[in-house]
Amino acid sequence: RDEIGADAMNPRNTDGMVPMGMGTSDMIPDYLDADDDGDGIPTRTERMAEGMMDLDMDMTPAYLDRDSDGDGVSDSVEAGATPAMPANSDGMLTGDLPDFLDTDSDNDCLGDSDMREAGAARTDPAMPSASSDANCMEPTPVCDRAVGRCVARADAGVDSGVDSGVDTGVDGGVMDSGVSSTPALSGDGACACRVPAAGGGADRAASALATLAGLALVYGARRRSKRSR
After folding, report:
1. pTM of the entire structure?
2. What mean pLDDT comes out for the span 203-222?
3. What is the pLDDT of residues 83-93, one digit of tens each?
């Protein structure tokens, strides 16, 4: 019923006049047309793929919209060679959207609407830049191609293995718990101090010194205990 339109006596024909390069026109009213908007993608396919979404928020459902994602590239182009099974150029994740509903078809962190993505570059992550990271900038300089989004460096907060002489509190991704300058002694004179996981060279040296200090205190405590008996 929604394909008939507002006037039942004059059924809607969305693809009666399709702009050049955006599909094909016909004289078949929508309720009898397997492809209402003439973009080559079957109406049934567009309805199922879009679901309840309206990605370009233009209030026009995909089956009546010849640029369903609003990226400036017509659905007839983004549909690919087999419109009944629309192209999905990135297709990295289960549930990823087909190109005609995806504003970054190749997940290279550069939107399809960018003029640099014209032509083959729209579906080739190695274009316009060999590395997708070139499409990002600080403070998110790395392109996560799994989702097509610029993120912070993957090694942020991880010790490079070269100590600068200043302990940042993070070594190799393990937070230092800190070592008390006066290790605690348990009731039986055993050392109850905690030594953090070794990180850089400076931290390993500090851990060794703290351990030796704890042992010295334990040894002294035991000697005093023997003398008092």
Report:
1. 0.64
2. 60
3. 999 999 988 65
Other Cβ atoms less than 10 A from the Cβ of 68: the count is 31
Extended beta strands in the chain, E state: 142-144, 149-151, 170-171, 174-175
Q: What is the DSSP string of 108-173?
A: SSS-TTSGGGTGGGGG-TTSS-SSGGGG-BTTB-EEETTTTEEES-TTTT---S---SS--SEETT
From 34-43, 135-144, 171-180, the region with the lowest mean pLDDT? 171-180
Phi (first) and psi of residue 142, to 5 degrees: -115, 130
Q: In DSSP terms, which residues pair with 170 in a beta bridge?
A: 175
**Residue 194 φ/ψ, nearest 5 degrees:** -110, 135
